[in-house]
Amino acid sequence: MVSSTAVTITAATAATGILAYAIYFDYQRRADPNFRRDLRREERRQARQEKEEAVQQTKQKRKDIQGAIDQLAEEEFPTGVNEKEQYFMDHVQKGETLAQDPTQTVEAAIAFYKALKVYPQPSDLIAIYDKTVDKRVLDVLAEMIAYDKNLDLGSAMNLSDLPTAGLD
Questions:
Q1: Tens digit of pLDDT for each residue in 65-81?
Q2: To which H or E segment does residue 47 belong?
Q3: Average pLDDT over residues 138-163
Q4: Which DSSP category does 7 fall into?
Q5: How many CA atoms lie within 13 A of 59 on its CB side?
């Protein structure tokens, strides 16, 4: 059985070692110009690497969205009024459910997009989405709409009806 004195001595030694390293690190940071320069270089390198990773993630996300739209272009959508209505309701409900999970953003946007494809007045539905759908899902949906050249938004869409947040 380990005595409490041995545990106390071990903890005090570890704390002293950590404190000594912190003091040494602080001294080096303040006194050694090469050490400071290396720290700054490392910070810049890490920031540059994070920025590159963010750009790569954005490119991959766009590629995934474009692949999903291309795949949806081959899909057959219902033609009957009742079938369209049921399809619309199913996909809006699915989109709302998926939008609750931040990891399912693209899947939620795809569900909302499918509902948009069968809606008779897509421009009206986009205005509704703008008010009700989470921003991250709405951003993905906007990229999908922008990429799809076959989506007919209708001539009823008036640019002055779109929200002008921050455009004064």
A1: 888 888 888 888 888 88
A2: helix 33-73
A3: 69
A4: H
A5: 6
Instruction: Write the CB contacts of 108 (distance below 8 Å, at least 6 apart in sequence).
Output: 94, 95, 96, 97, 98, 99, 101, 137, 140
Distance (Å) of CA 28 to CA 2, 16, 20, 42, 151: 38, 18, 12, 15, 62
Chain segment 54-66, per-residue pLDDT in tens: 999 989 988 888 8
Total residue length of the chain = 168
Residue 120 phi, psi dihedral angles, 5° rounding: -65, -30
Give the mean pLDDT of the chain: 85
Instruction: Specify the DSSP class assigned to residue 103.
Output: G
**How is residue 148 annotated by DSSP?**
-
- The three-point CA angle 60-64-66 to 5° equals 115
